[in-house]
Amino acid sequence: MNTPNILVVDDAMDMRIYLKTLVKGMGYEPVMVRDGTEGLAAVAQKPIALILLDIMMPGEGGVIMYRALRQDEALKRIPVVIHSAVPERLFSHYMAMEARSGHSLTPPDAYVEKPADPVRLKETIRSVMGDRG
Asked: Taking the model in full, what pTM does it have?
């Protein structure tokens, strides 16, 4: 049986190492990238069961990647858990602005604010993965 891949998109190396350890400890295969550009390339290269996505990153950030994922027919069904220091209410505001501009996006499958309790983050990942894992 193939181990499901979880894509971790975060610019902070210490956070990538932490999330890699957490995801691997849960029995998933972590795929690590530093920004949205690398993240979109990764989903084009291998099957991804879930994406852990930071929002605030330099360059091609998480918001741009999230929009690209949700607007792509082949990618929009990949579950996304946003894991960010950006408060959820601010991301909700962004989603509302997108809707007003005629670019309605489906909300993420879950939103976990940093610093996340590891138990809560694991529970969120398990919940979103459902029977995929």
From this structure: 0.89
